[in-house]
Design goal:
By secondary structure, the protein is of the alpha/beta class. The chain is built from 6 helices and 5 strands, in the order βαββββααααα. Helices cover 31% and strands 10% of the residues. It catalyses: an N(1)-methylpseudouridine in rRNA + S-adenosyl-L-methionine = N(1)-methyl-N(3)-[(3S)-3-amino-3-carboxypropyl]pseudouridine in rRNA + S-methyl-5'-thioadenosine + H(+).
Length: 173
């Protein structure tokens, strides 16, 4: 039976530079389930996507849902990524404060796997069911939502990026 999530919700894309082990890659696993499309060149990423970029000037907020047609994660080593190539995307967004639930970085702030970042984005944009569906593919995945339940709920209720940053300051203040 085909995975029902592949036709529902926001299309998910990952730019992957093959710098991590494909057997441990969260994006490769989602691709195997038909929930993610992986591209190997920056030029293959649509300029109209919401590009998850921790160096972005703006933080994601529910207000972004009005224009989002897809979400793209940069699934690569940040040490080698040339972020100057990313400045032409108007839809670059960073995530607010959240803590990792993955086994490697459990409890560490701002150290999310790509699937955690995608799920957080989906949740903030009002696509909580899609967020659960992608996280459910990992034995630790739904723990991410439980661990971050309070901030995710507050971020999802914010009007704009400024409100998200104000909420974030209450967590890291």
């Amino acid at each position: 039976m085909a995975d029902q999530t592949r036709t529902k919700g926001i299309p998910l894309i990952a730019y992957r530079d093959n710098s991590c082990d494909p057997k441990k890659c969260t994006m490769k696993k989602l691709e195997r389930f038909g929930m993610m499309r992986i591209v190997g060149r920056i030029q293959e990423i649509s300029k109209s996507t919401l590009l998850l970029d921790p160096t972005a000037e703006f933080v994601i907020s529910p207000a972004d849902r009005n224009w989002v047609r897809s979400i793209t994660a940069l699934d690569c080593s940040w040490e080698v990524l040339d972020t100057a190539n990313l400045t032409s995307w108007k839809g670059r967004r960073a995530l607010p404060f959240l803590v990792a639930a993955n086994p490697v970085n459990f409890g560490k702030p701002f150290t999310l796997t790509s699937v955690e970042a995608i799920a957080a984005t989906l949740h903030i944009l009002g696509e909580a069911e899609q967020a659960k569906a992608v996280l459910a593919k990992f034995h630790w995945g739904l723990n991410f939502l439980a661990l971050n339940a309070e901030p995710l709920a507050e971020y999802a209720e914010a009007k704009n990026s400024e409100e998200v940053l104000k909420i974030q300051s209450e967590y890291i203040g």
